[in-house]
């Protein structure tokens, strides 16, 4: 594996696995964001209100938070090949449901279920980590994340054209149905063309299923603390859909959701205890331990990086339109410069991590992120439009470079738990998005950017607790054989 060169234009060996995985991620994001560029046409076609449109957009991200945790567990247990293929095939069903929907309720259910495909990102993180050595892992994961993430921008550019090509009132249905067909087809192609590990390598699985393993009692407490913001975010989403928000749910339905969230949290905490109760019987052997603080710090950083990206991409077209008195189409094109940077900046963040170390890279990029949002907060009608776009692109480089640097570190913590760790960190990106969008709905745009900058400063402080990966991580297979995996 190590002897094979990193040749971006190769489509064999480890490079084939990377290319197949970013394509799967790309398609999952096309499907996840397929409604956004067509929403005005869909609203006209079915007579949806503005409140109903907002509700569909909220439902699109609601399930992704728990889905990333669940998909992380499934990936570690059954392998990325089966999990990614299954996700793409199964999620084509709610995609077709949405394309055929004739009422708001049908669209809402399909959109809610489609949130699951947003968890696909987690699977490829584990796949790429199995095939690439540590000194190339940041670059490979960056390409996987950055190029796959571009699927949302590709959907925005291509789906309106496909809808127009089919024409008529049902053009949007054909466009969204086509993405479902693409997801179904590529699910089969992925299954037939990839392998979980290089020939002769072991795929290490978690020792226990149901919750993330930790290796000390202090880490168990920290794990419980890190779970709480995810449930709080789901409660916040429920509140947004309540009579106090967009009025989709009745008060009794909202209270039922709160009750279910408390029940699921209780079950989650019980399973977490069951998986980790051996910690109270005695210490875990030194070679089996991993520091959960690494995961906690990366969660906080992804909250600020990917969380802010999702939030800013949602509001930037309107911000440009209102600030510079542009048409929505022109504003949307200019705002897409933020997402376009993913093609280079996320791989760039991973590449810099490979060359100069995980912690120094994260320190620099997080500081740049804080300064970038401070700069964006200063944009007003007095700025020239090219300067404003340059400011946005500069900020987005640090944001997306930071995302690449986070996932350059995630696979170097504990190999057999990579899917679950990536799932939790990825979920924190969605937690950040919901938090920042909620802030955006309550304060001025300038203060919104300041809040994101402040979260980045908090991430910078948390980086003091991150340890640069060194030496090896140890895994033990089912036969008791010990394998040392380099993290340098």
| SSE arrangement, N to C | HHHHHHHHHHHHHHHHHHHHEE
Could you tell me the mean pLDDT?
92
The biggest sheet amounts to: 2 strands, antiparallel
What radius of gyration results from the CA coordinates?
Answer: 22 Å
Low-confidence stretches: none
Ends: how far apart?
16 Å
Number of strands: 2
What does this entry look like structurally?
With 488 residues, the chain is mainly α. It contains 20 helices and two strands. A two-stranded antiparallel ribbon has the order 1-2.
Overview in brief:
The chain is mostly helical. The protein has helices at about 15-30, 40-45, 50-60, 65-80, 80-90, 90-100, 105-115, 120-130, 135-150, 150-165, 170-195, 215-240, 250-275, 290-325, 330-340, 340-355, 360-375, 385-410, 420-440, 445-460; strands at about 470-475, 480-485. The protein has a two-stranded antiparallel ribbon with strand order 1-2.
């Amino acid at each position: 594996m190590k002897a094979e060169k990193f040749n971006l234009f190769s489509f064999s060996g480890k490079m084939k696995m990377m290319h197949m995985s970013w394509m799967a991620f790309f398609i999952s994001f096309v499907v996840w964001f397929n409604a956004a560029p067509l929403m005005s046409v869909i609203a006209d076609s079915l007579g949806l209100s503005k409140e109903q449109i907002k509700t569909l957009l909220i439902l699109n991200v609601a399930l992704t938070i728990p889905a990333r945790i669940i998909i992380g567990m499934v990936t570690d247990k059954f392998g990325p090949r089966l999990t990614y293929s299954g996700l793409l095939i199964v999620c084509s069903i709610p995609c077709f449901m949405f394309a055929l929907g004739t009422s708001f309720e049908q669209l809402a259910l399909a959109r809610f279920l489609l949130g699951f495909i947003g968890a696909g990102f987690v699977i490829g993180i584990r796949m790429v980590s199995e095939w690439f050595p540590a000194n190339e892992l940041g670059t490979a994961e960056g390409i996987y994340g950055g190029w796959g993430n571009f699927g949302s921008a590709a959907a925005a550019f291509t789906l309106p054209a496909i809808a127009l090509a089919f024409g008529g009132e049902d053009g949007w249905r054909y466009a969204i149905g086509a993405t479902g067909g693409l997801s179904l087809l590529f699910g089969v192609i992925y299954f037939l063309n990839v392998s979980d590990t290089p020939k002769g390598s072991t795929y290490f699985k978690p020792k226990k299923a149901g919750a993330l393993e930790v290796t000390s009692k202090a880490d168990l407490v920290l794990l419980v603390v890190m779970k709480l913001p995810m449930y709080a975010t789901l409660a916040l989403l429920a509140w947004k859909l309540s009579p106090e928000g967009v009025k989709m749910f009745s008060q009794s339905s909202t209270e039922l959701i709160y009750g279910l969230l408390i029940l699921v949290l209780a079950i989650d905490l019980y399973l977490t205890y069951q998986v980790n109760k051996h910690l109270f019987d005695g210490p875990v052997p030194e070679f089996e331990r991993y520091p959960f603080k690494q995961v906690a710090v990366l969660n906080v950083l992804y909250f600020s990086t990917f969380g802010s990206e999702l939030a800013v991409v949602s509001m930037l077209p309107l911000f440009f339109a209102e600030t510079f008195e542009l048409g929505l189409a022109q504003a949307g094109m200019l705002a897409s410069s933020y997402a376009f940077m993913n093609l280079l900046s996320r791989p760039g963040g991973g590449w810099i991590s490979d060359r100069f170390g995980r912690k120094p890279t994260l320190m620099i990029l997080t500081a740049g992120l804080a300064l970038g949002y401070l700069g964006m907060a200063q944009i007003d009608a007095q700025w020239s439009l090219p300067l404003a776009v340059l400011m946005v692109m500069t900020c987005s480089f640090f944001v997306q470079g930071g995302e690449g640097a986070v996932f350059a570190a995630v696979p170097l913590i504990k190999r057999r738990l990579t899917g679950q760790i990536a799932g939790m960190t990825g979920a924190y990106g969605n937690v950040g998005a919901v938090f920042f969008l909620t802030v955006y709905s309550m304060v001025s745009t300038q203060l919104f950017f300041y809040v994101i900058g402040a979260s980045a400063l908090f991430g910078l402080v948390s980086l003091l607790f991150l340890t640069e990966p060194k030496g090896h991580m140890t895994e033990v297979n089912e036969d008791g054989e010990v394998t040392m995996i380099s993290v340098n």
